[in-house]
Amino acid sequence: MTHPQPDADDPTPPPAISVHRLQAWYVAGQNVLDLADFAVPPHTVVGLLGVNGAGKTTLINCLSGVHEQVNVEDVQWNGRASGFGDPGYRASRYTVFTEHSGFTYWSFDAYLAFLSRTYRRPIDPAAVAELSAGFQFEPFRDKTIGALSTGNRKKAYLIAGLALRLPLLILDEPVDGLDFTGTEFLYDAINAYREYGSVLMSSHIAESFERCCDQLYVMRSGALEGPITDPDALRHVRRLVLGD
Question: Is residue 166 part of a domain?
Fold first, then answer.
């Protein structure tokens, strides 16, 4: 199925990314994801809510191009036909994974320089300094990533993703490992990110959605419900996932 191209006279911008009929599996014939439609509008924060094991991380891995056992009927990036491996899409998104074990022998600043070359875009030193201060990360910038604590390693990847200012920032359980100060600052940074692009964030923590999200999807057993945009519903996330 090919979705129609955007109408030049339509003032409504297309989603940053939209996905139609996605299936993913680890064992052939046993789908862990079976989704109809999913979209992230431009300059919004979209939540992906679900209990552990619901399939949130698998979906994020698919969107990030690191899950190979996937079949998708149609992917649109800014209203144009695309794919998870498309170079234009890959150059426009950055993912902070729940667990990240790469670049352990690099310093944070060396990692930033690598990202700048890879994505072919400058990274504003003032933005990095502001984010480092907000996360209280300044004393750790010259340490190797592998030598950092779990929380500071998470901060390093979050700062990098926020500083790149790409059109799509994907965050998988972003508050895991963060202290109270880091969590509060992250919520502010996510809300401010609408100026640069969209954020898709997964979590099992209700507060994350109540503090940040414009809309959310609820994932149950590999299927999605949503998008949910009602402000009252967004303030009562527990009811959405537990049905009480």
Answer: yes
pLDDT tier, 25 (very low <50, low <70, confident <90, very high otherwise): very high
Q: Model's pTM, two decimal places?
A: 0.91
> Predicted confidence band at 45 (pLDDT cuts at 50, 70, 90)?
very high
Q: Per-residue pLDDT for 48 more than 90? A: yes
Give the angle 180-186-188 at the CA atoms, nearest 5°.
110
CA dihedral 115, 120, 122, 123 (to 10 degrees): -20
pLDDT reading at 9 higher than 80: no
Q: Is residue 5 part of a domain?
A: no
CA 243, CA 107: separation in Å to the nearest integer? 45
Give the domain range for residue 235. Answer: 17-242
In a domain, 6, yes or no: no
CATH number of the structural domain spanning residue 206:
3.40.50.300
Any domain includes 230 = yes
Residue whose tokens read 């144009």: 80
For 141-173, give the secondary structure using H, E and C. CCCEHHHCCHHHHHHHHHHHHHHHCCCEEEEEC
Half-sphere exposure (Cβ direction) of 186: Cα atoms closer than 13 Å? 30
Band (4; pLDDT cuts 50, 70, 90): very low
Count how many domains the chain has: 1
Confidence at residue 67, expressed as pLDDT on a 0 to 100 scale: 93
For residue 83, the one-letter residue type is G
CA atoms of 109 and 60, how far apart (whole Å): 26
